[in-house]
Design goal:
Elements: E1 2-9, H1 16-27, E2 40-45, H2 51-66, E3 72-79
Antiparallel strand pairs: 1-2, 1-3
């Protein structure tokens, strides 16, 4: 089974990397970009007996290691 994990900064948390990329895009004529936030994407292959178990385990991984719950949110999608 495969899990896709998306980790993003919570609203209100400053994102200097996102601001730098947005500024660079604006400077090379992509003026339509009004906001940009940088996040993380992880693809995890795992052995689980069910989708529910896979989702539960990956969410536990996120809470314990893959995301910082103080400043980040995460979303898990189970495939197959």
């Amino acid at each position: 089974m495969k899990a896709n994990v998306y980790v993003t900064l919570k609203k209100g948390v400053l994102d200097p990397q996102g601001k730098a990329v947005m500024g660079a895009l604006n400077s090379i004529s992509f003026k339509e970009v009004k906001d940009l936030r940088i996040g993380k994407f992880m693809e995890i292959e795992l052995d689980a007996d069910s989708r529910d178990e896979a989702e539960r385990r990956v969410e536990e991984m996120c809470r314990k290691l893959l995301a910082n719950p103080v400043i980040e949110d995460f979303k898990v999608e189970i495939k197959g």
